[in-house]
Amino acid sequence: MHDLLTWVQSLPTLWIYLVAALIVAGETAVIFGLLVPGEATLLLVGFLTYNGTLRLGPALLAMIVAAVAGDGLAFRAGRRYGPRLRAGLGHRVGPERWGRADAMLARLGGRGVFAARWVAFARTLVPRLAGAAGMPYRRFVLWNLAGVVTWVGGSVLLGHLAGESYDTVSRLLGRATGAALLLLAGLLAVVLAGRWLGRNPDPVRALLSRAGALPPVRWLTARYGVLFFLVAMRVGPAWTLLLNLAAGLLLLFAAGLAIAGLLAVAVRNSGLAALDGAIAGWFTARRTPDAADATTVLVSVVRGSVLILLVALVAAVLAWRSRPWRTDLLSVVGTAGAFVPLVVLAVVAELTGPHGGGGSAPLPTQNAVVAASFCTLAWLVSRGARWPVAVAAWTTAAAGVLGVGGARLYLGLDTASGTAAAVLLGVLWTVVFMVAWATRDRAVRELEQPVDQVRPSSEGHRSPVEPC
Question: Which ranges are annotated Basic and acidic residues under compositional bias (predicted)?
Answer without folding.
Answer: 458-468
